[in-house]
Each structure stands twice: as C-alpha cells, then as structure tokens.
Design brief:
Elements: E1 2-7, H1 12-23, E2 28-35, H2 39-49, E3 53-56, H3 59-69, E4 77-79, H4 82-90, E5 96-99, H5 107-115, E6 119-122, H6 125-142, E7 145-148, H7 151-160, E8 169-176, H8 194-197, H9 207-215, H10 217-230, E9 235-239, E10 245-251, E11 256-260, H11 266-274, H12 306-316, H13 320-336, H14 344-355, H15 364-382
Parallel strand pairs: 1-2, 1-5, 2-3, 3-4, 5-6, 6-7, 8-9
Antiparallel strand pairs: 8-10, 10-11
Helix pairs in contact: 5-6, 6-10, 6-13, 9-13, 10-12, 13-14, 13-15, 14-15
Length: about 375
C-alpha cells in the first residue's frame, strides 16, 4: 500500500482525492491530512480515514479542533507547527504528497517535498507558476517526480506518455470551457456580480478558481505552468464549451493526440495516484450520443485580456510570475467582498505589473518578497 499525505484535504481537490482513496482502499492509506481552518470537515475525515497525523494552519482552528476531539477516540497525532509538518512530509511514511491547497502558501511545502525527492501530485498550480524553473531544477537534482492533477495538465501528461522523442512536440493546446461569460456582451461586464462569476457552467469549484475561470486568468496561469512542466514554449488556448476534451498535443508531423473524459477531477487524480497503472476513479463514461456537437472557437482576447499576460510574463521572467499571481489573488478577494468591480481586476493587475520592479529570482525568499510587495501595492489601489 502507498502512504499519502494530502495537503488541503478539506477543499474540493482534497475531497475528490479521498473519494478515489475510498474506492481503492486496498491500495492507499493516509499518513497525513492538512487543512487551513475547516476543522469540522477535517474531523470527519479523521474518523473515516484514520490518518497518523493531522495539521491545521489556523491557530484558532487548531484550538477548536483539540477541543472538539476530546470526546473522540482515535490514534491521530496533532501537529502544532510548520516544522513538525515539514518533518512528516520528508519522512519515509509520506510516499506521495498531494498538493491540493490553494495559493502561494503551497509553495513552501511543495518545495520541501521536491527537495526530499518525493512523488508529488500537483493541483496547487500557483507553486509552478511562481517557481516553475526553480522546482524543475531541484527535481532533477533530487529525483522528485511531479504529476499534475488539474484536468488540462494531466491530459497533456497522458498525451505525452509513451512518446520517447519529446522533441517531436510542436505545440500544446490547452482547452477551456470559456466560463460563464463566454457569450456575454463585453459592454455588460462591468455589471458582473460575484454570484455570477462563481457559477461555472461545467466544473464545480471553489470561489477563487471559479472567478479565475470567468476572467480566464486560470488559463493564463495554466500556460505558465505548462511552460515549466513540459518545457514547451508554443502553447495555445482553445475554447471548448462542452469540457470533454481536456487538452491536446500537436507533433511535428501535425498529428494531434487529445485526452477526453467527463469533466471530473477524480479522473486526473486517479491517474496520478496509480501511474503507470490505472485504477477506478468513480467517474462515469462519456455518453457520445449526448455529445454529437463538440465545438471549438478561438479565445476573445478583448473580452479576456488576462490570456495575454501569460506570454508577457514568460518573456520577462523573474519575479513577474509572483507579482501576477499575488495581485490576482488580492483582486479576486476584493471583488468577492464587493470592494471592486469585475473589470477592475485586470486593470489593477496590469497597473501593478507596470509599476513593479521585476527582479531576478534566486531563492524562495525572493519570491515571497515580491509576493508581499505586490500585495501591498494592490491593497493600496483597492482601498
């Protein structure tokens, strides 16, 4: 059996991972579960999966967890600080690390896992957006393997598996549903509400990533992530509203391989957990009778200007990735809280990128410093 450490077990990806584990409980056991502050869900997970260790990042949530657990009887150790968490991540008992947390907060544990040569299932795209080149170089040194478990990058990985000559890849094509505003008049974008922006037509996701999907900032980040994960520079985006084809790879002979499935996160998670084998995911098969009209279109860069920022940042490099990610985080939070309008998200992002001093990134401290500076500038513009 393989021992798993799931970072962010109470979020949508963490829950889906545990669902796959539940269906394959003869193959996996849980060594560690972590969350930010949702101790109620974490306690339920502890009761079912009996992990050896759990960790809550939020101090108040830690206290609530300890209090709530007094009446329960289970043999789980409560980790109380980040150093203890890092020790468990580097231990032999944590064979596979599922990085399912949201945001740049996931960078430090992901970096630590790569440093210790772990197999990592990566849903935390922000880590590879802000530190992709650094993590690549480190993984070569340590022998760490990184399996993306977001649908698009998992699809690319599946398309490339078995291809010995990676130099034959000419282009990666990331697909996207287009989000809830694909056909909405651009002149009405300023009236978009948080409720509308978090109502995705295909995927069930958290609020932050749903807003990113609506602005297509998620595709911007995915382009950057794909650049580092697969070492390919020619990356395009194709709008595919049905969400059945998750990405495509074009080769030098102009043939294209695509990966198709129902839009269900459990499929890429199961693929990453069992690779190179295949296991039950719990998803359903595609009913092709229902999809007799799979459609595609080019993205509208006027409606979704965030798409253009990816290539700009790849060209500039350095701390631009950390700045882009940080400002977007702050703007999405401000939009969800009603502090700014929908169109202000992109305006503030470009404003901060233009004002910022792009620096060379040598270590994690450089990334965290740029992240903090960008957030402070963003908050000034927001408030």
């Amino acid at each position: 059996m393989k021992n798993l450490a799931i970072l962010g077990s109470t979020g949508s990806v963490g829950k889906s991972t545990l669902d796959v584990v539940r269906r394959n409980n003869d193959k996996f056991q849980i060594n560690l579960l972590t969350a930010n502050k949702n101790f109620e869900i974490l306690l339920k997970q502890v009761h079912e999966f009996q992990p050896k260790f759990i960790y809550l990042n939020n101090p108040d949530a830690q206290k609530s967890l300890v209090e709530a657990a007094k009446s329960l009887n289970f043999n789980t150790t409560f980790l109380t600080n980040e150093d203890e968490l890092m020790d468990i991540l580097s231990s032999q008992e944590s064979e596979i690390i599922v990085a399912a947390m949201v945001g740049v907060a996931g960078l430090k544990p992901v970096h630590h896992a790569v440093k210790n040569g772990k197999q990592i299932l990566l849903a935390n795209k922000e880590s590879y957006v802000v530190a992709g080149e650094m993590l690549n170089n480190l993984s070569i040194e340590t022998g760490s393997t990184i399996f993306p478990i977001d649908s698009e990058h998992s699809a690319i990985h599946q398309c490339l598996t078995g291809i010995e000559d990676k130099g034959s890849v000419s282009r990666i094509i990331l697909t996207g549903s287009g989000g809830p505003f694909l056909d909405r008049d651009i002149n009405d974008f300023d009236n978009i509400t948080p409720e509308e922006a978090t109502s995705h037509p295909v995927w069930k996701m958290g609020k932050k990533i749903s807003v990113d999907s609506s602005t297509m900032m998620n595709k911007c980040l995915e382009i950057i992530e794909a650049r580092w994960l697969f070492n390919v520079k020619d990356i395009d985006v194709l709008i595919h509203p049905q969400g059945i084809i998750h990405s495509l790879v074009e080769f030098t002979d102009k043939s294209i391989i695509a990966q198709l499935s129902e839009p269900d996160m459990k499929i890429p998670i199961a693929y990453g957990l069992a690779f190179p084998e295949r296991i039950t995911s719990g998803s359903s098969s595609i009913n092709f009778d229902e999809f007799n009209n799979l459609s595609f279109r080019k993205p509208d860069f006027n409606k979704f200007p965030a798409l253009g920022l990816a290539k700009d940042c790849i060209e500039v490099g350095g701390s631009s990735f950390a700045i882009l990610n940080a400002v977007n985080d702050e703007c999405v939070d401000a939009f969800l809280e009603g502090k700014i309008k929908y169109l202000d998200i992109f305006k503030i992002i470009t404003n901060v990128l233009d004002k910022s001093n792009i620096k060379e990134v040598k270590d994690l401290n450089d990334i965290f410093e740029s992240d903090l500076e960008a957030r402070e500038i963003s908050k000034e513009l927001i408030n």
